[in-house]
Amino acid sequence: MKRKTLLLLSSFAFLIIGLPNLQSYPTGAPSDGRTGSPGDGGKTCATSGCHNVTASSVTGILSSNIPVEGYTPGASYTITASIDGNGNKGLCVSPQKTDGTLMGTLTAGAGNQLIGGKYITHTSPKTTDPGVFTFTWVAPASGSGAVDFYGAFANNRTMVRKVVYTVNEKLSSGINERYLLSDLNLFPNPIVNGDKLHVAFELKQASDLKISLMDITGKEIIVFKQSHLNAASFNESYSLPELGSGIYFVRIEGANNLVLNRKLLIQKN
User: Fold this and answer.
1) CA 264, CA 269: separation in Å to the nearest integer?
2) Which residue segments constitute the domains of the chain, with CATH numbers given?
3) What's the pLDDT at 6?
4) What is residue 191's three-state secondary structure?
């Protein structure tokens, strides 16, 4: 009897050793990224060993509130991933150049997190159908052009899909900046411990202008200036309201649908 028991235990141990090396990442993808992008070496969550399947290329899943005409540089947008099907659903998404350089700024939403400095992934799997994740993306600087969001999505243990979601830059933003306003400068940036904000630019044509401060969700916090200005050099300083540390945006709106957003960092020691 003892010999039979030992044989059974030995066989069971051999079976375990012989199984594929399956790993599990229920609290998010590995920090080196699994988006399927060229910059990530094409790796997806299937490559990690967790799902042990081949990822299929599909369309859909990712969407946003970016207008059809394209993103405005420096503006904040909501990106949504909607993963259908039964089972535990997870994701890994990143807007990148083909060399892996992050395009824009990412802020995690409920149920997800930022890892490795440039990847949005789940904190725990979604079990609803569909499983919906949202996060915030701040568009990169003017002249960045089209941006590809690479994403890999686990529908369950045996299904992984990958998507490339492309958004274009709104061309008029660069045209308006070139012909109406140039040399925009915010300083200091970051602002530390309540320093005044200095805004400087060259206004090339007379225009009604509005200069305001927005939070990362696009909510207006304060209007610094709203008036008609003649073509001239502009340089003014403004006191800021009591704000927490984080990312904010100075928005300048003017004639011919000019909308410029520039990122401002505020730090409190």
Assistant:
1) 16
2) 23-167 (2.60.40.2410), 171-267 (2.60.40.1930)
3) 45
4) strand
Any long-range contacts for 166-169 (C-beta under 8 Å, 24+ apart)?
A: 167/64, 167/66, 167/70, 167/71, 168/69, 168/70, 168/71, 169/70, 169/71, 169/73, 169/139, 169/142, 169/143, 169/144, 169/145
Question: How far is the C-alpha of 19 from the C-alpha of 4, rounded, in Å?
Answer: 23
Q: How confident is the model at residue 121, as a pLDDT?
A: 93
Name the token pair of 204: 């090339």
**CB within 8 Å of 207: residues ≥ 6 apart:** 180, 228, 229, 254, 255, 258
pLDDT along the chain (269 residues), means of 10: 47 38 60 86 72 79 86 90 88 92 93 93 89 93 87 82 88 58 87 89 91 84 94 94 87 80 83
CA proximity to 204, closest of 224, 225, 175:
175
**What does 71-140 look like in DSSP terms, one character per residue?**
BPTT-EEEEEEEE-SSS-BEEEEEEE-TT--B-SEEE--TTEEEETTTEEEESS-B-SSSEEEEEEEE--
- What is the maximal distance between C-alpha atoms in the chain? 99
The H-or-E segment that residue 234 falls in is strand 232-238
Q: Is there a contact between 141 and 73 (Cβ–Cβ < 8 Å)?
A: yes
**Cβ-contact 260, 251 below 8 angstroms:** yes
Query: How far from chain centre, in Å, is Cα 252?
Result: 23
What pLDDT does residue 232 have? Answer: 94
